[in-house]
């Protein structure tokens, strides 16, 4: 833009100058950013996920909640990154299990960690308890819905697991890129919603009943069910990996296991037509 | 025109290290009518003395509800109070909408204190001419804070601001050790006694000039729960006019006075000169019009 100021008339204005020389209103800038599109190119929206994580499973058990996810971040159908942790603790009593776009997950981690750091700093002066799992879930559902409404979704499906210190009960809920939210004693994202959720429900309802009033699974039982489900997913979900972690969230806090593998059996595959060496 | 050469803008220190505009703003708070706050381990209470601008005017409200769990009493410029309380309401709603959480009381007070501080440091602005007593209840229990135009926010067991508030402070300092375990009725009686001490000789607390706000579990013995759903839930509620009558009667009974209060008051409306001379004027700058108990323009 040309400078209109008498002292510098005719010279180009600096590229980063945002001064409105003509006092026009509304200002010749978009609401979104401080700088104009001409200088920085068009606004980019996430149109599709690139590096993705697959299913996350969640299950309430006696004394807490467990969340499982494998360690794979796929690049399309390529098993690109095989050592990615998709379970992220937030403060003392909340944990996120994230499926979908891994760069959006990294952004989400950064934003939420910053928020919690700010909360911790404020708590130094007023000792007020930090955000509860419910508070963080509420924030995420607002965020995801707002972003999808701007045609720029946060391309993830997230399970929030936690322990509510006030109500003294476990917390488990789902939110995805459309802002869809729901809660249940067993949850799964993506492929897991089809393959693992029925198995999780079966195990949960076998003890607790369909109304959930009976006893909950013990920690050992819950871990066993999740391991079975991870194995089923590894057999049938082509974007999965037999290397996963399980997080437990209790009144004691968050504990994320080391990576582990399920015993799998592939002998039967040799006899499958189209799999092994063809004999006829 | 100016009282000294360092008060024409708020960002320049005097050689004595004072910011005169800030001090004048604190003066505006001192000239507003009194507000008192006190707290037990279950309740927080505000009591205020209302003024009217004249015989034909209503008494100006001094208690503002911010949210279910926060409310303020004001002393100073009412219009500045409205700006700040609107901001507090926004903060409270923002917290409820984004986190589904009632905003912690200390943080909402800090947010207006930070705004007030900016006004003491940036050229071309002026400090707010209003002070708040803020009561609220959050996950850490009931709280009482004072906000002042100098940009400070402190927490108190009991505190008073506004005209003649020093007398109330004297009462509170003498009695505050009993507040922590006091039941609601007793807490209110202490508050009314303190408020009574801020009155001029010939004035008394009446249902017209007294208003009381409470946060904490309701007490059906002294509160008319049919009147207030907020009270039933233990949320911030204000008792004034007819609503404060029973509370005043209970207080007079506790002092062994006739429960209907002094009777001659109604027969003797204050004369204009009398009102002009009045409270708050002892702190007023020389030559400035005095803010009387019953006749003022701006400050409440």
UniProtKB/TrEMBL annotation, chain A:
Coiled coil: none annotated. Residues 1-49 are annotated as: Disordered. The keyword Chloroplast does not apply. InterPro entries: Ntn_hydrolases_N (IPR029055), Proteasome_beta4 (IPR016295), Proteasome_bsu_CS (IPR016050), Proteasome_sua/b (IPR001353), Proteasome_suB-type (IPR023333). Keywords: Cytoplasm, Nucleus, Proteasome. Residues 1-36 have a biased composition (Polar residues). This is Proteasome subunit beta.
Automatic annotation (TrEMBL), chain B:
GO terms for biological process: ubiquitin-dependent protein catabolic process. Residues 264-293 have a biased composition (Low complexity). InterPro entries: Ntn_hydrolases_N, Proteasome_alpha, Proteasome_alpha-type, Proteasome_alpha1, Proteasome_asu_N, Proteasome_sua/b. Residues 250-300 are annotated as: Disordered. Residues 6-28 form the Proteasome alpha-type subunits domain. It is found in: Cytoplasm; Nucleus. The keyword Cytoplasm applies. Pfam families: Proteasome, Proteasome_A_N. It comes from the Eukaryota. Keywords: Cytoplasm, Nucleus, Proteasome. GO terms for cellular component: cytoplasm; nucleus; proteasome core complex, alpha-subunit complex. Belongs to the peptidase T1A family. The 26S proteasome consists of a 20S proteasome core and two 19S regulatory subunits. PANTHER family: PROTEASOME SUBUNIT ALPHA/BETA. This is Proteasome subunit alpha type. It comes from Kwoniella bestiolae CBS 10118.
């Amino acid at each position: 833009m040309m400078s209109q100021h008498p002292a510098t008339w005719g010279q180009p204005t600096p590229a980063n100058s945002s001064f409105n020389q003509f006092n026009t209103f509304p200002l010749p800038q978009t609401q979104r950013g401080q700088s104009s599109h001409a200088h920085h190119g068009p606004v980019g929206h996430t149109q599709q996920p690139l590096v993705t994580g697959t299913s996350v499973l969640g299950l309430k058990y006696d004394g807490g909640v467990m969340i499982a996810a494998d360690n794979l971040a796929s690049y399309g159908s390529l098993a690109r990154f095989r050592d990615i942790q998709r379970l992220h603790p937030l403060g003392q009593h909340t944990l996120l299990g994230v499926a979908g776009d891994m760069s959006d997950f990294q952004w989400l981690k950064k934003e939420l960690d910053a928020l919690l750091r700010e909360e911790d700093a404020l708590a130094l002066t007023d000792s007020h308890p930090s955000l509860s799992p419910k508070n963080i879930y509420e924030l995420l559902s607002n965020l995801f819905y707002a972003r999808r409404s701007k045609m720029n979704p946060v391309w993830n499906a997230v399970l929030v697991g936690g322990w509510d210190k006030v109500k003294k009960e476990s917390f488990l809920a789902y939110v995805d890129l459309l802002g869809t939210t729901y809660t249940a004693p067993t949850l799964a994202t993506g492929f897991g919603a089809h393959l693992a959720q029925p198995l999780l429900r079966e195990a949960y309802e076998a003890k607790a009943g369909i109304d959930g009033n009976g006893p909950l699974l013990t920690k050992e039982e819950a871990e066993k069910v999740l391991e079975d489900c991870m194995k089923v997913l590894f057999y049938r979900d082509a974007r999965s990996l037999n290397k996963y972690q399980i997080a437990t969230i209790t009144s004691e806090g968050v504990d994320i296991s080391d990576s582990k593998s399920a015993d799998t059996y592939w002998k039967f595959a040799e006899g499958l037509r189209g799999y092994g060496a063809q004999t006829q | 025109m100016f009282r000294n050469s360092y008060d024409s803008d708020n960002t320049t220190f005097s050689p004595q290290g004072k910011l005169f505009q800030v001090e004048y703003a604190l003066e505006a708070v001192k000239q507003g009518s009194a507000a008192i706050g006190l707290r037990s381990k279950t309740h927080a209470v505000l009591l205020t003395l209302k003024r009217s601008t004249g015989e034909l005017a209503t008494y100006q409200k001094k208690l503002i509800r911010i949210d279910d769990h926060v409310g303020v009493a004001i002393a100073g410029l009412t219009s500045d109070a409205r700006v700040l309380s609107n901001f507090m309401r926004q903060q409270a709603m923002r917290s409820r909408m984004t986190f589904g959480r009632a905003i912690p009381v200390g943080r909402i007070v800090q947010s207006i204190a930070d705004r007030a501080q900016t006004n003491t440091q940036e050229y071309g602005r002026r400090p707010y001419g209003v002070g708040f007593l803020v009561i609220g209840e959050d996950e850490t229990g009931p709280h009482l804070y004072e906000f002042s135009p100098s940009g400070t926010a402190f927490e108190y067991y009991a505190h008073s601001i506004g005209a003649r508030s020093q007398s109330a402070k004297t009462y509170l300092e003498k009695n505050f050790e009993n507040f922590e375990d006091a039941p609601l009725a007793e807490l209110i009686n202490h508050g009314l006694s303190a408020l009574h001490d801020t009155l001029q000789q010939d004035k008394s607390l009446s249902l017209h000039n007294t208003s009381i706000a409470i946060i904490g579990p309701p007490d059906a013995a002294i509160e008319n729960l049919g009147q207030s759903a907020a009270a039933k839930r233990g949320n911030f509620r204000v008792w004034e006019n007819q609503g404060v009558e029973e509370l005043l009667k209970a207080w007079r009974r506790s002092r062994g006075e006739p429960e209907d209060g002094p009777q001659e008051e109604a027969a003797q409306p204050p004369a204009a000169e009398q009102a002009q001379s009045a409270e708050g004027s002892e702190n007023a700058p020389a030559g400035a019009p005095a803010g009387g108990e019953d006749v003022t323009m701006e400050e409440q």
